[in-house]
Amino acid sequence: SDWSSDVCSSDLEPILKYNEIRDDAKLQEPIKEKFDRGIDERQYSVYTFGMQTLTEVFPNTEHGAVPAKEVAEGIHQVLKVLHVSKRVLAHGLGLSESFLNRMLTRKKGTYKAETLRPLRRAARLIEETQKTLSPEGVPFWLNHPHPYLNNLPPVMCMRSDAEVDRALTQLYAIRYGMPA
Known about the structure:
By secondary structure, the chain is mainly alpha-helical. The protein has helices at residues 9-25, 28-37, 54-57, 68-82, 86-93, 97-105, 117-132, 137-142, 161-176, and strands spanning 65-67, 110-112. It is built from 9 helices and 2 strands. α4 (68-82) crosses α7, α5 (86-93) packs across α6 (97-105) and α7 runs parallel beside α9. The two termini are 20 Å apart.
């Protein structure tokens, strides 16, 4: 059967939205320049965030409340590693841009761990990508569309655990040399 018959217009909406956002922000040029120059980006894409990994900054539900200041710093680290705007990150996580901005500016109080679930998905994908690819390759791979992800970049596949698992499957195929 023809693959195009399986695609409905709602499946194309995220692709069109991503292309619109990417074109507006001109996000690919800085990434490509750094990739072409071969800059060692280890200073931003370290496996740990301070003394914690990104997944520890955004813990599971059994850990209780997380200080807002740590959450804001973790989001800034995610933005730095991904080389994307707040708008693209919010769209990729399925959050409103205003909510993400509030999370970035809030310095007092705490967040329930369940509120941080979308950020935990992003942290998981970032850390697995850092374990697999070079520092230059991390933002490059996360920001380029892949045919096995419905021509979406992995940064746009963080709305659900199932989407992240699909992206991780592709990443594991790269890591272990298995055909996709």
